[in-house]
Amino acid sequence: MDCNEARRLMAAGVSPGTRPGQRPELGFHLAGCAACRAFREQLVTVAAPPTAKAARVAVMAAPPELVPQPEVRVAPRSRVVWLLPVVVLLIVLALGWYWGVPLVRAWSNLQMMSADGQGGGVTLPARTTRVRPTPQGLVAARLRATPSATVTRVVATTTATSTSAAMTRTTLTTPTASPSATPTAIASPTATVTPTIQPSPTIAVPAGMTVLLMGIDARPNEGMLARTDSMILVRLDPQQHVVALMSLPRDLWVSIPGGGEGKINAAFYLGEAARAGGGPALARQTVSTLLGIPITNHVVVDFRGFRGLIDIIGGITVDVPSELYDPQFPTEDYGYMTAHFMRGPQHMNGDQALIYSRVRHPDSDFQRMRRQQQVLVAVGEALRQQGALTTLHHADELTAALAGYVHTDLAPEAAASMLWSLRDTNPQQIQHIAVDTAYLTQTNIGGAYALVGSSDLFHHLGAAFLQGRQP
């Protein structure tokens, strides 16, 4: 959104925010544009009712003796003493209004992002156990892309009487489920409470926290239970100058509390199957048990929320280390498309960033984990460069724009502390840890590809992660 469009919306009476009649893009633009904020203040001043002021009039000159002289009276000392505390009170109220209003709005926006405090769960589509269907027809579409980051959707036509499909660029194959070992859930798996590190209520210097970020593969208008498509642990400890990221592969074979053994991406699924909203808690407990470290909070985002989050901040810039070309990138409607990213800095919108974060056929799932960390750092860098975390008023506009795109059990004060702690983060100082074949062994369990490692190894990785160092 440019300045002209922002000023046109403000002149029409549109305000920033995610509620009906409001525009979140306007709020984020105001957070980074001082000129438009000044324009908005001028509109407020013009719209305010006129104050009662004496009109200035020209008076003809007259002899001094004919001009009535005002009688000078000295105000009683008691009236001056009484007026002083009133002036002080008015000043305090004005400052309280200036800082209090945005603080209340930011607090309200953070509460909208927070999940239900009783269960700590996530609002997911209605649960069912049906198998994902094979699409009978795919709609031709083309994803918007820049010249340097292009994606092309395959066009396919199928009929009930024909076994062939006419396509462009590549051959369409019906997606088939790869063999995988499905963990067996007991009657009622119960997720126990994991010890947590309580964050400090002080925004200026928040205490250390460990947050599990989960990207789930929930698709629009589907009622099937979701699995985690990505898991990234984030360690923030400003007092120790620690910012670290650790990615866990989805094929990692682990012990799931109350659910036997299976791939780590099944923990969220089993938690939701046992209790609506129980997915984040069981996934968090599984990772905490695996690494032997406490995890304080979780954040969950689906495909739609990820795209919206990137678009609402105006996109991100990612330095693609090498060219990526995937002619069979799986789409959300169970078809295929061509994904292509050129080497070098690329500015990506929400759709492009999601594809870049998920593509893995050109290399491996381990390189995909590194791309996901790269996108996460790019989001933080975009916010930092735009000054969205520097003042309370900027944070007010930011939280209004982001509310509704993420689900979390972070309390409002903890979320504010986390955002505030990132304001001076240097991306070059962030520790990146990817749990790959340097630590794990590739094997086959029950006919399914899996990655395994020893308990001592995972505890070593967890200790290094908490300290913000390489294992």
Describe the structure.
It is a single chain. The protein is of the alpha+beta class and 471 residues long. It has 2 domains: 1-38, no CATH class; 134-156 and 195-471, Aminopeptidase. 35% of the residues lie in helices and 18% in strands. The strands form 6 sheets. Strands 14-9-4-5-6-15 form a 6-stranded mixed beta sheet, sandwiched between helices. Strands 3-12-11 form a 3-stranded antiparallel beta sheet, with helices on one face. The chain has a two-stranded parallel sheet with strand order 1-2. The two termini are 43 Å apart. Mean pLDDT is 72; it is low at 51-64 and 115-205.
What composes the largest sheet?
6 strands, mixed
> Uncertain runs with pLDDT below 50, 5 residues or more?
51-64, 115-205
- The CATH topology of the largest domain corresponds to Aminopeptidase
Mean pLDDT: 72
By CATH reckoning, the class of the largest domain would read Alpha Beta
- How far the N terminus sits from the C terminus, by CA atoms, comes to 43 Å
Q: From N to C, what is the helix and strand string? A: HEEHHHEEEEEEHHEHEEEEHHHEHEEEH
User: Would you tell me the structural class of the helices and strands?
Assistant: alpha+beta
Report the β-strand fraction as a percent range.
Answer: 15-25%
Describe the global form.
globular
The total count of strands amounts to 17
Main sheet strand line-up: 14-9-4-5-6-15
Radius of gyration: 28 Å
Tally of helical segments: 12
CATH architecture identity of the largest domain: 3-Layer(aba) Sandwich
| Total tally of structural domains | 2
The oligomeric status of these chains comes to single chain
